[in-house]
Amino acid sequence: MGAFSISSSMRNFNIRVYGLWLQDGKVLVCKEPVLGKEILKFPGGGLEYGEGTIDCLKREWMEELNVETQVLEHFYTTDYFQPSAFDNTQIISIYYTICPTAALETPVFNGRETCYFQTIDETLTAEMSLPIDKKVAAMLFQTLKQ
Fold first, then answer.
1. Which of 17, 74, 79, 116 is most buried when burial is the number of CB atoms within 10 A of its CB?
2. Predicted local distance difference test score (pLDDT) of residue 34
Protein backbone atom coordinates (compact mmCIF):
# COMPACT_ATOMS: atom_id res chain seq x y z
CA MET A 1 0.00 0.00 0.00
CA GLY A 2 2.99 2.29 -0.13
CA ALA A 3 4.24 4.78 2.45
CA PHE A 4 0.81 5.88 3.62
CA SER A 5 0.05 5.48 7.28
CA ILE A 6 -3.49 4.92 8.50
CA SER A 7 -4.38 5.91 12.05
CA SER A 8 -5.56 3.16 14.37
CA SER A 9 -9.04 4.72 14.52
CA MET A 10 -9.40 4.37 10.73
CA ARG A 11 -8.57 0.66 10.90
CA ASN A 12 -11.90 0.07 12.63
CA PHE A 13 -13.85 0.85 9.47
CA ASN A 14 -14.16 -1.34 6.40
CA ILE A 15 -15.72 0.54 3.48
CA ARG A 16 -17.22 -1.67 0.77
CA VAL A 17 -18.60 -0.58 -2.61
CA TYR A 18 -21.00 -2.70 -4.67
CA GLY A 19 -22.64 -2.50 -8.08
CA LEU A 20 -26.22 -3.51 -8.76
CA TRP A 21 -26.71 -4.54 -12.37
CA LEU A 22 -30.45 -4.86 -12.89
CA GLN A 23 -31.82 -6.60 -15.96
CA ASP A 24 -35.32 -7.95 -16.66
CA GLY A 25 -36.29 -8.33 -12.99
CA LYS A 26 -32.95 -9.88 -12.08
CA VAL A 27 -29.75 -8.68 -10.43
CA LEU A 28 -26.19 -9.90 -10.86
CA VAL A 29 -24.86 -11.76 -7.80
CA CYS A 30 -21.62 -13.61 -7.06
CA LYS A 31 -20.84 -16.81 -5.18
CA GLU A 32 -17.45 -16.47 -3.57
CA PRO A 33 -15.45 -18.56 -1.10
CA VAL A 34 -14.62 -16.59 2.07
CA LEU A 35 -12.77 -18.25 4.96
CA GLY A 36 -13.76 -21.72 3.82
CA LYS A 37 -17.43 -20.85 3.38
CA GLU A 38 -19.26 -20.00 0.14
CA ILE A 39 -21.18 -16.72 0.31
CA LEU A 40 -23.65 -15.08 -2.06
CA LYS A 41 -23.07 -11.35 -2.45
CA PHE A 42 -23.33 -8.46 -4.89
CA PRO A 43 -20.24 -7.78 -7.06
CA GLY A 44 -17.84 -5.28 -5.53
CA GLY A 45 -15.33 -5.03 -2.74
CA GLY A 46 -13.13 -2.96 -0.50
CA LEU A 47 -12.24 0.69 -0.94
CA GLU A 48 -8.48 1.19 -1.09
CA TYR A 49 -6.72 4.17 0.48
CA GLY A 50 -6.64 7.14 -1.91
CA GLU A 51 -9.52 5.80 -4.01
CA GLY A 52 -12.98 7.31 -4.50
CA THR A 53 -16.04 5.11 -4.25
CA ILE A 54 -16.86 5.16 -7.97
CA ASP A 55 -13.24 4.42 -8.91
CA CYS A 56 -13.34 1.53 -6.43
CA LEU A 57 -16.50 0.15 -7.99
CA LYS A 58 -15.08 0.37 -11.50
CA ARG A 59 -11.84 -1.33 -10.38
CA GLU A 60 -13.69 -4.12 -8.55
CA TRP A 61 -15.94 -4.86 -11.54
CA MET A 62 -12.90 -4.95 -13.83
CA GLU A 63 -11.12 -7.35 -11.42
CA GLU A 64 -14.15 -9.59 -10.84
CA LEU A 65 -15.89 -9.50 -14.22
CA ASN A 66 -13.36 -8.00 -16.63
CA VAL A 67 -15.88 -5.40 -17.75
CA GLU A 68 -15.98 -1.61 -17.58
CA THR A 69 -19.05 -0.09 -15.99
CA GLN A 70 -21.00 3.12 -16.03
CA VAL A 71 -22.39 4.18 -12.66
CA LEU A 72 -26.04 5.19 -13.00
CA GLU A 73 -26.99 6.35 -9.50
CA HIS A 74 -26.46 5.90 -5.80
CA PHE A 75 -28.84 3.27 -4.39
CA TYR A 76 -28.00 2.87 -0.69
CA THR A 77 -25.36 3.51 1.97
CA THR A 78 -25.36 1.68 5.30
CA ASP A 79 -27.12 3.87 7.85
CA TYR A 80 -26.73 1.70 10.95
CA PHE A 81 -23.96 -0.03 12.87
CA GLN A 82 -22.93 -3.31 11.22
CA PRO A 83 -19.99 -5.21 12.70
CA SER A 84 -18.00 -7.38 10.32
CA ALA A 85 -18.55 -11.12 10.47
CA PHE A 86 -14.88 -11.65 9.60
CA ASP A 87 -12.81 -9.22 11.70
CA ASN A 88 -13.00 -6.45 14.29
CA THR A 89 -14.24 -3.67 12.00
CA GLN A 90 -17.42 -1.73 11.33
CA ILE A 91 -18.76 -2.25 7.81
CA ILE A 92 -19.95 0.69 5.75
CA SER A 93 -21.34 -0.44 2.38
CA ILE A 94 -22.20 1.80 -0.55
CA TYR A 95 -24.35 0.50 -3.42
CA TYR A 96 -24.74 1.99 -6.89
CA THR A 97 -26.87 0.90 -9.80
CA ILE A 98 -24.59 0.30 -12.75
CA CYS A 99 -24.58 -0.69 -16.39
CA PRO A 100 -21.63 -2.46 -18.05
CA THR A 101 -20.29 -0.64 -21.11
CA ALA A 102 -19.84 -3.93 -23.02
CA ALA A 103 -21.76 -7.17 -23.38
CA LEU A 104 -21.24 -9.70 -20.62
CA GLU A 105 -22.07 -13.37 -20.97
CA THR A 106 -23.29 -14.94 -17.74
CA PRO A 107 -22.53 -16.89 -15.75
CA VAL A 108 -18.99 -15.59 -15.35
CA PHE A 109 -16.34 -17.66 -13.55
CA ASN A 110 -13.11 -15.80 -12.84
CA GLY A 111 -11.24 -18.63 -11.12
CA ARG A 112 -12.44 -17.65 -7.66
CA GLU A 113 -16.07 -16.63 -7.86
CA THR A 114 -19.07 -17.27 -10.10
CA CYS A 115 -21.37 -14.40 -11.06
CA TYR A 116 -24.85 -14.87 -12.52
CA PHE A 117 -28.27 -13.24 -12.65
CA GLN A 118 -30.69 -14.02 -9.82
CA THR A 119 -34.40 -13.21 -9.87
CA ILE A 120 -35.35 -10.34 -7.57
CA ASP A 121 -38.12 -11.87 -5.49
CA GLU A 122 -38.95 -12.60 -1.86
CA THR A 123 -36.39 -15.45 -1.73
CA LEU A 124 -33.41 -13.28 -2.75
CA THR A 125 -33.20 -11.67 0.69
CA ALA A 126 -32.89 -15.06 2.41
CA GLU A 127 -30.31 -16.30 -0.11
CA MET A 128 -27.90 -13.38 0.33
CA SER A 129 -25.17 -14.15 2.87
CA LEU A 130 -24.24 -10.75 4.27
CA PRO A 131 -26.58 -8.64 6.45
CA ILE A 132 -26.32 -5.42 4.44
CA ASP A 133 -26.79 -7.33 1.15
CA LYS A 134 -29.96 -8.84 2.65
CA LYS A 135 -31.28 -5.34 3.35
CA VAL A 136 -30.43 -4.18 -0.17
CA ALA A 137 -32.07 -7.27 -1.70
CA ALA A 138 -35.25 -6.48 0.23
CA MET A 139 -35.08 -2.87 -0.98
CA LEU A 140 -34.69 -4.05 -4.59
CA PHE A 141 -37.73 -6.32 -4.20
CA GLN A 142 -39.81 -3.48 -2.72
CA THR A 143 -38.74 -1.16 -5.55
CA LEU A 144 -39.79 -3.70 -8.20
CA LYS A 145 -43.15 -4.30 -6.52
CA GLN A 146 -44.09 -0.60 -6.80
1. 17
2. 87
Domain coverage including residue 118: 10-145
> How much is the pLDDT for 3?
52
Q: How many domains does the chain have?
A: 1
Tens of pLDDT, residue by residue over 14-56, are: 999 999 999 999 999 999 998 889 999 999 999 999 999 999 9
- CA 118 to chain CA mean position, Å: 14
Pair 60, 71: CB distance under 8 Å: no
Distances 127 to 6, 21, 98 between C-alpha atoms, Å: 35, 17, 22
Residue 1 forms part of a structural domain: no
Best CA proximity match to 142, nearest among 43, 45, 44, 75:
75
- Burial call 23-60: b when 16+ CB within 10 Å, e when fewer: eeebbbbbbbeeeeeebbbbbbbebeeeeebbebbbbb
Given this model, what pLDDT does residue 11 score? Answer: 65
Check which CATH number belongs to the domain holding 102 and give it. 3.90.79.10
How far apart CA 45 and CA 93 sit, in angstroms, is 9
